[in-house]
Amino acid sequence: MDDEVTVSDPSRYRESRRKRKSADIAQALGASPVDVAALRRMAISEGGLLTDEIRCRVWPRLLNVPLQVLDQEPETVERENNKDYNQVLLDVQRSLRRFPPGMPDEQREGLQEELIDIILRVLKRNSQLHYYQGYHDIVVTFLLVLGERLATALVEKLSTHHLRDFMDPTMDNTKHILNYLMPIIERVNPEVHDFMQQAEVGTVFALSWLITWFGHVLSDFRHVVRLYDFFLACHPLMPIYFAAVIVLYREEEVLECECDMAMVHHMLSQIPQDLPYETLISRAGDLFVQFPPSELAKEAASHDSMATSTFKDFDLASTQQRPDSVLRRRRRQRQAALESAAASSVVTVARPSAARRFVRLAVMGLTVALGAAALAVVNSALEWAPKLDLFP
Amino acid sequence: MGSDDSYNFVFKVVLIGESGVGKSNLLSRFTKNEFNHDSRTTIGVEFSTRTVQLDNYTIKAQIWDTAGLERYRAITSAYYRGAVGALLVYDISKHLTYESAERWLKELYDHADPHIVVMLVGNKRDLDTLRTVPMEEAKDFAEKKGLMYMETSALDSTNVEAAFNEVLTAIHTKVASREVTRGSISAVTLSNPIGPTSEAQEGRGGCCKSA
């Protein structure tokens, strides 16, 4: 799309940028302590983490999972009398399409066994978590990139943080997160919002996008992992911003659709496979900066469609790990300062100029990283605070 | 989809039942004559349509496929609204999926039109050697509950066409005997003619465009 940079030889230019980024990532990984903030920026910025090899080294850093887990023998899980086994088996057996085409059956079957083990292991160790269909779509992505041991550790961390709300006994919190979709759309394009409201389409078309981080609906694995780079580096609500950006990107199709619940639902749930991912990622980040969850939650609370007004961003974090209130307050002050700074440089969302996007991406990297820090994906918010001062 | 063809009625039909009984494949067999051994887990709801001729009417069947897992019911049950037909599917080789039929029925009646046409469908008939649900038992249950009944195989196509057509015909019969006219459009429901009706609607309707 409009990401292309016009130079005499674009492919050579891209290649040199890739090399530079790859070197930057290596440098951030080699720093002592590891420069997680820089890694986050790399994961978000154009091209993401480039290769699965790099992802193996960076994803654990983004979730603060120590690499020592590689030395641990994964514990075996009893399958008999396991309350989740039958359902997990049913879903894993039906996930053939998530494996690379051309992979020998034997190898795929081995991975499917590992997939079942990882899921059952995480569920067993965390009795507060409940399996949902689509969870296997997330886990298979980690398994294919990282292998069983690292995947287990990262999925466990993710399940108690980013995915925690989806794993409640009921779908209430999931529905609540879906409720963020329409307010985001409304801010950017009231016409699309009003049309969707009139059609009474609801938000269920985006359910599988949200709870599988798009793994269930995108057929090209490269696109899936690119999005995972982005989401792993961001606030847990980022997938709903990305969902909004997809709807907004399809503005014309939406408005041309028959204004009927079924028709609009059907059209929106068929996700185009050739989306301009880099452009959309950058827009999602922009929207997050412009309309942070806290602002939407406030607005949504006064709205009838919101079932409860008790939702707070912090509820997304695990109950065990929370930054203390002082750090939280400090974060809010920083975020408020950043947002006001961002607001002056962000005028329109739909058609940003290249120069403006550059500025905004820099701001976004910072703000998004702040969002993640607040959710204590790293062990403590303290670890984050000094690093943030290093940003330009 | 299907916006270029013309039809007399749209019938909304829902596919319900436990996870893995073959709802999505019944649907793809009926609407596309396809069977997929690697049919993805259905997350949320989706629908397909097929247009059929009944008497001199063109009927557009809009068939909604739903996720079977319990936790999704809070989301999917909202989509029962406006349905005039339902196929309650179980797997003849898995008795547990049959045992939950009663629960599904309650769920359906709680959220859908009480006059909805319901068929109990024993799918995977091709797995007869692994059968755990005797046909007589299911038939008796269906009779007791006032449901239609059929055994199908989405895999080898047995009775798939027949099952959907019987349901659509039954809906059509009900609709034909209860037709009401209101204003300039003729709309039909299975229940009493009060309140807004969009369940089985004549012609094409749009709320914003060309209405």
Automatic annotation (TrEMBL), chain A:
Pfam families: RabGAP-TBC (PF00566). InterPro entries: Rab-GAP-TBC_dom (IPR000195), Rab-GAP_TBC_sf (IPR035969), TBC20/Gyp8-like (IPR045913). GO terms for biological process: endoplasmic reticulum to Golgi vesicle-mediated transport; Golgi organization; vesicle organization. The chain crosses the membrane at residues 230-249, 361-382. Gene3D superfamilies: 1.10.8.1310, Ypt/Rab-GAP domain of gyp1p, domain 3. The keyword Transmembrane helix applies. It is a multi-pass membrane protein. It is found in: Membrane. Residues 1-22 are annotated as: Disordered. Keywords: GTPase activation, Membrane, Transmembrane, Transmembrane helix. Residues 49-235 form the Rab-GAP TBC domain. Its main location: membrane. Signal peptide: none annotated. GO terms for molecular function: GTPase activator activity. One of its GO terms (cellular component) is endoplasmic reticulum membrane. This is TBC1 domain family member 20. It comes from Scophthalmus maximus (Turbot).
Automatic annotation (TrEMBL), chain B:
SMART domains: RAB, RAN, RAS, RHO. InterPro entries: P-loop_NTPase, Rab_GTPases_membrane_traffic, Small_GTP-bd, Small_GTPase. The keyword Nuclease does not apply. GO terms for cellular component: endomembrane system; pseudopodium membrane. It is found in: Cell projection, Pseudopodium membrane; Endomembrane system. Keywords: GTP-binding, Lipoprotein, Membrane, Nucleotide-binding, Prenylation. Its main location: membrane. It comes from the Eukaryota. It is a lipid-anchor. GO terms for molecular function: GTP binding; GTPase activity. Interacts (GTP-bound form) with RAB11FIP1, RAB11FIP2, RAB11FIP3 and RAB11FIP4. Interacts (via the hypervariable C-terminal region) with ITGB1 (via the cytoplasmic region); the interaction is GTP-dependent. Interacts with ITGAV. Associates with the integrin alpha-V/beta-1 heterodimer. Interacts with VPS33B. The small GTPases Rab are key regulators of intracellular membrane trafficking, from the formation of transport vesicles to their fusion with membranes. Rabs cycle between an inactive GDP-bound form and an active GTP-bound form that is able to recruit to membranes different set of downstream effectors directly responsible for vesicle formation, movement, tethering and fusion. RAB25 regulates epithelial cell differentiation, proliferation and survival, thereby playing key roles in tumorigenesis. Belongs to the small GTPase superfamily. Rab family. This is Ras-related protein Rab-25. It comes from Scophthalmus maximus (Turbot).
